[in-house]
Amino acid sequence: MNPAEQLIRQKFLQYYLAHNKGFYLPPSPEEREYGFLLFKEKFMVRHRAFRDPSLLLAAIRDLVPAHIYFSTAYYQQPTAPMDEKGWKRADLVFDIDADHLDTPCKPEHDTWKCKSCGILGKGGAPKVCPKCKNDRLEEQTWLCAQCLQHAKEETSKLLEILYSDFGVDPSDTHVFFSGHRGYHVHVYSNDLGLVGEEERREIANYVLGQGLEPELHELEELKSGGTTVIEGPQIGQPGWRGRMVAGIYDVLGEEGEQVGLSAAQTRTLMAQDRDKLFGRPFWSSVKGIGLTTWKALSSKAVEKRSAKIDSVVTTDVHRLIRLPGTLNGHTGLMAMKVQKERFDEFDPFNESLAFYGNMKVRVKDSPQFELGHRQFGPYQNEEIELPSYAAMLLLCKRRAEPLG
Amino acid sequence: MLTRADLAKYPFLAEASDYVRELGFSIDEIAAPEFGPVLDRAEKRLEEALSKGQVSNDSISESTEILSFPVSNLILGLVGEERARRRFALAEAKRAYELLRQETPEKIEHIASKTFGWKLKRLDVRLVRRFYDFAVNLTDYLHNSIHLREPRWSLSNRVMDQGFVYVTREEAARLIEEEVRARILERSSKPPGEIPRQLGSRVERARGLVIKWLGVPAHYELPSVPMPEAMPPCVRHLIDSLNEGKNVQHMGRFTLASFLLNIGTGEEEIVKAFKPATDFSERMTRYQVEHIGGRRGGRTKYTCPMCTTLKTHGVCYKPDELCDTIRNPLSYYKKKSRILTNKGLKREPS
Prior knowledge:
Largest sheet of chain A: 4 strands, antiparallel
Helix content of chain A: 25-40%
Radius of gyration of chain B: 25 Å
Number of strands of chain A: 22
Distance between the termini of chain A: 17 Å
Low-confidence stretches of chain A: none
Radius of gyration of chain A: 25 Å
Structural class of chain A: alpha+beta
Helix content of chain B: 40-55%
Mean pLDDT of chain A: 91
Oligomer: heterodimer
CATH architecture of the largest domain in chain A: Alpha-Beta Complex
CATH superfamily of the largest domain in chain A: DNA primase, PRIM domain
Strand order of the largest sheet of chain A: 2-1-3-14
Low-confidence stretches of chain B: 345-350
Number of helices of chain B: 15
Number of strands of chain B: 4
Strand order of the largest sheet of chain B: 1-2-4-3
Order of helices and strands of chain B: HHHHHHEEHEEHHHHHHHH
Largest sheet of chain B: 4 strands, antiparallel
Shape of chain A: globular
Structural class of chain B: mainly alpha
CATH topology of the largest domain in chain A: DNA primase, PRIM domain
Strand content of chain B: 5-15%
Number of domains of chain B: 3
């Protein structure tokens, strides 16, 4: 452990010692597997289980992990090796993380480095190094309001799809801030909890609009008596049909041009009331827009309205996921439950702070950031006294070293 | 709700089993002369399934039809041939589908909910041009649709409202076909301990039919020496990329290692395959290969990822015609090696 890690660990210990309210606990906490990623050598302690929340807290105080996880799955024997655990069911979970979102601000705050040839780049890391084609890339990401706002919008879209299409009960649906760059949505459902990986892949694809073909939603050309008519879904129809049609309005501008819509055609469409126009058979009503264009617009509308979840997380029925109420070792912020009623107002940079008082650190370099309603930075090679929450963020992000 | 004619059409129904029970039908009486037609029909069901892949629907008497179905199952269970059981289940399921699709919505609803426990609602909705008769509970839908590969079955291409998926009458029949197949397969998997004496000759005859139509039990195993020419395009591409010194990403490496392990390649050979990699480390590669083989770490022996996963991760490469028929690279290998060694697929009657 380097000095920064030692200090972070010490602060985490203080936090967990002071912590006596207990954590947010998922249903049947004793049937879950717990995992702890330790500071020391990034070692993962897995296959732990606790009969009682106080034993969990004791283990956390004993190990002082950088990250604390629990399984979305319920097991007969959570401490047994993987294939002997006796899988019973698993919550349906969704992960929306800025890592998977294409936000325009990434080049401003994220950088990457190829571990193999050493070249550097700005923005999110590509899949492989453009120079040496290696896939071992190291990312330096940053906490950014714009990215988190984007993640929040994706989460809202997800919730809407879950409630209206999947008929998920809002009281079974819980939203959590990850303490870093995104949100998690957990659904506790008796029905859906039992479905396997292939079924969950279908669910993930649905939320992503992946594989959706407008013609299979009956967007088709019909020939009757020498004339060709285009027929298709209308606004107000259930599921993707109505959502797709409603979304067409959102993509008329720049994206409409990309699929070959003329300025005049866009104006014609925009001039009409959305719900009135799309609420009746309209597909043949605009001159010059053919089936191919409508399909392209529909696909773009689906893309816009879909929720950009990480499908790997949803599909995995043995997933370990961050335990709310614990600290995120990437930031020193708290992973926490967000009240859905006030999700819009939730401010991750103010409500998830876990450390108080001041700390002195030497900052190597840091972009500007906002935490606890205060502006910080940018910093470059300076020794400075900061509120602990800000100093902890810089320490966790390897942007600062302890002083004294 | 259901008539005896219905039970004859759908002898897998719970009501049909009740009917058989009420008749007091017992194994001991099976050799009695009056059961001759039942035994004959049971045998015919099997022969039709094995020879044509579909069971006919033209029996003389309803009770013969109802009674012969469990007898077919019993015989099959006693024959104990997995491939015959699968073929029979599929053939009976197809027969059910052909009949079901012509039924009234009431009858389809009854069978789906009573026999298979679906939650479903009756609809009478036309969206664009298609008529939807039912909305099926999502989990009941997915349970069956994941076995169907046409794009129209993928959830993204369905109309879903409040956890219920819209389906037409024909589609409901097709989904029920999947239930029927699974149910029959499960039933014939539990054979009684010993062959009832009275059935002995019938079982022998059925065994003969299986060999006649499906060939001698192949007990075909993978070739003892790995056959590179039977490997799927994705795996070959991975090997080529490594040989050309190109970088192969984690998922690709995992796929290659798990594939090779599962077709019986030795760990030494696999480590060698990774040698051309630019960042090759013998120690690391050996460790990972042992891990995938279940000799290290979690002791789980990994199988090769499914094609859907490989598509997601961009490992799937130029799928060919055979790829359309499989869901895992290992199945490709199994089929292709059979074709190449002339040992399978073509099952000509001997």
